[in-house]
Amino acid sequence: MGLEKLVNVDCANFSDVHVDSIQKAFEIVRNSRTDKSLISVEFWTGDIPLYDVEQDGAILYLNGAINLIFTHFEDVTHQLRTNGNYVLPDQELVVSLKSGNALRTKLSDLNLQEEFIDYGYFDIDTSDYKTLNESQRAFAEYIYRDLKTSMKLLQKFGIGKQRIISLYPTYVKDTVKEIGPFSRACSLELSNQSHSFNAAAYQIVFSFAKIRGVPVEFYKK
What we know:
The chain is an alpha+beta fold. Helices cover about 30% and strands about 25% of the residues.
């Protein structure tokens, strides 16, 4: 897939790009190493956050293999707009999102700082990312892959901090008790803004964020 075929489109025009080509966070980060225009642009990514409660507590699964948001766009955006959360249509899809290369994170291990009633954050100092704990680092590596290279790139563009957003464990526990496993959307912005990677996003329809992928007419598996 050549970079020259990749385009950025508004959410309303997401069908202009092939759904299987919509980029995940790590792909946008990787492309930004050679394309400065991707810096300080907000994107909806192909990553899917699944929140559930298991024996060891509230859990977040991040999976880029199943593009849930854009394959169920009308249903997902309606639920997010109405209820703030997306209830998955069947248990088989829940199992799929937990499988493969999905990153499993126990939310209490992220040591989230308070931001709002349902979500919190941890920060990555681009010049001192080695202070991250094991779970925070695994989360960061899911987004940025090679931390050394990615953090050096961000420093080059004057970006000293990346803020990672996730739902609070208590909110997840209370919500799963009511509606079962649920999802939201993920966004990425390589900048000093308050939300660098957000795994708790829901205002996907009311956003200026872009979607990055290959136009349908150029897509080849």
